[in-house]
Amino acid sequence: MRLLITNDDGAYAPGIKALHRALNQDHEVWVVAPETEQSAVGHAITLVDPIRVHPLTPETGMTGWAVSGTPADCVKLALRELLDEPPEMVISGINLGANVGVNLLYSGTVSAATEGAILGLPAISISLGTLTQPDFSHAAAFAAHLVKQYSDLQVPLGVSLNVNVPALPASQIKGVRFCRQSTARLQEKFLKRQDPRGHLYYWQAGETMGTQGDGQTDYPALLEGYVTITPVGHDLTRHGVLSDIRDADVGLPIWDDN
Amino acid sequence: MRLLITNDDGAYAPGIKALHRALNQDHEVWVVAPETEQSAVGHAITLVDPIRVHPLTPETGMTGWAVSGTPADCVKLALRELLDEPPEMVISGINLGANVGVNLLYSGTVSAATEGAILGLPAISISLGTLTQPDFSHAAAFAAHLVKQYSDLQVPLGVSLNVNVPALPASQIKGVRFCRQSTARLQEKFLKRQDPRGHLYYWQAGETMGTQGDGQTDYPALLEGYVTITPVGHDLTRHGVLSDIRDADVGLPIWDDN
To answer: Mean of the pLDDT values across residues B247-258?
Structure first.
């Protein structure tokens, strides 16, 4: 297959190299990824700045481009401008750090796969459940494994699969679990500092918290030792709430034309 | 009520001033908004850079802070650091340009309200359906109207309301319609240019396209002349797809521990 890979840790991050290595054996792989780390950019796209593009150097062992934009920009630009033929699938990752729960909203990795799905392609985002032990080999092997089985799953167009792989030895990975997005979320805190000129600034920090929810949701299942797969869409409507409030009489204010 | 207002067009944009003016009469209003335009940043948060904060100057007629971050950063920072007491509601806008369809994902305006909802607050995002005729008065009046009625709607916590107001004379606004997110999306195109040093760069442009879907969805309803209200959440799981693939036997690849 002809595959497009991207990420949010940047084109020179070890996670994308591991992904490329695992997929390049059996597929034609093109890389279009941010030239610098874009973690937590979510589904940002670049409208107010120009976007620059540099071919990846041969030393990377990868063919493609580094882009001065976000992961979603990379997918759009790849399809509209950079690739001569459209890819058959988009794979985003391997992210250093799980993408579970509410954090899916902040994740450039997940958003790149969502963008691929919006543009009508099968798409996978894949992340490794650790910030400290970056051995991407199992996650990369799982990505290659899932790419081969993707069509059997008959995932509808417009939906991507968000995958998290536990950072465990193979013997401790219990299996694959399809599950819902959990309510786990980044519990943010702000570190207040003073710069050398006496001006205040903040660093945003935080850690993923909250394992409420059962093992049928992503974060608890990942912590139990399962590879998690969540089908992800882009309809934010809360349909149940809509049914409840649909007939409410909000009315219009009294306003004057001017 | 004590209200937090923010936006993605920046603290000095006319839309937030109009919103402030409409709400400040009856409420205690705090502004925490990006210091520069952050359009299309989606749900980005700032983790890899420090965040700076400047009090708004008295000339703005508003009380609060301009922040060197994204709309979602503004909401988090307001709640965690800047406001002495938490607000009772978050209102984001008024955005210049509709936020409908797939564009909700790219919208900093919508993401700020979503962030408020994640943090447990009632929240509204509001946008004006034009890029060229920035008369915010009707949208501002509608925001004030909806704030007063919000509690009657019994919107559950964790859900925000995304509002779009047509850029029409009052006599042509047909009413309020609660509706789903449509499948309308940004049809992006890239303008390829050369800088003075001969290097290529791209501008991302595009327009919202696609009115597929009935008048029970946001973009068609807005074009018909209705104020649209969509309840928005942050669970991206496609539950129907999950049911379909839950028992698929993907299995684990054969991998060696290393």
So the answer is: 83
